[in-house]
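Throughout our pipeline, every protein is held as a single compact record rather than as scattered files. Such a record has a labelled line for the sequence and another for the backbone structure tokens. The remainder of this section carries one protein's record, kept here as part of the documentation:
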Amino acid sequence: MLAIKHGAINLGQGFPNFDGPDFVKEAAIQAIREGKNQYARGYGIPDFNSAIAARFRKDTGLEVDPEKEVTVTSGCTEAIAATMLGLINPGDEVILFAPFYDSYEATLSMAGAKIKCITLRPPDFSVPVNELKSAISKNTRAVLINTPHNPTGKMFTREELELIATLCIENDVLVFTDEVYDKLAFEAEHISMASLPGMYERTVTMNSLGKTFSLTGWKIGWAIAPEHLTWGVRQAHSFLTFATSTPMQWAAATALRAPDSYYEELKRDYMAKKAILVEGLKAVGFVVHPSSGTYFVVVDHTPFGLENDVAFCEYLIQEVGVVAIPTSVFYLNPEEGKNLVRFTFCKDEDTLKAAVQRMKQRLRKI
């Protein structure tokens, strides 16, 4: 609302200001014309479930049963809600890494979970090993991981994932992984937790179409899990949305069968956008923290002398005409995020250049 009021360039919310590929949109139009417009089967149309399983096999080497281990949801946000509500009981302890996507805390609260938070700290947001070891115990029901990570752009390393896996196996803990940015991995290899030895049986892998195909408004997501965990996810899903948009699922199946060249071009485009924003932010005077994946970058705003992230973002909108997101909303303890703000580069290059230009002209150290 503030952005609209002040005519600000929105580098805050993570949705592209450019459209998804024509071949996917045409597939949706064709499905609508062919009359594929009634309720879909609750856990997904067979063709889409098969396409999800095939992509997962290509990405991880894992064979999953599309009928028994794949559940289509209305966006990854619903996959998260169905997983929390279907597999977490009141009083269960769940470990989150802060900063985190706000939906995690909300859905865990709905499930009555007891949330334990481990903070990833700048500049590299690495996992604090000793803190994690002391946090996980026999009382822990699940650990939630987001890699590549919103809001920081961090990608969990193989060593970090192996450590988490070992602790989860030792303590019989489940892992829920949000991997919606898996195809936006720029400076490191994306590793799915489910692909590590002994982990598929205790992991729910959640993903979506929106980020990879710039179709965030379609709200098409999925959860992949062994049958005993899928059962819980589907129980909750049945009473959340029951089914997901039918023609969009047909189109999503087409999207997931895109050739590798689509993903290579996507990565190239985003790396060019990222370079414009990161170089611009450094030139303006921010401390820019490294981002290996996602279309986000987190910066330290303190060189500009405002008291916290909210005050800085308000100043940035009103006086400079650019929107960023205060990161304190991504922490259980807002104090931990008060020095950081998040920018996104999922915008066309002219928009990014215009935002950088405004900051160069108008942003002053106070």
User: Anything to note?
Assistant: Residues 260-284 form the longest helix (25 residues). The radius of gyration is 20 Å.
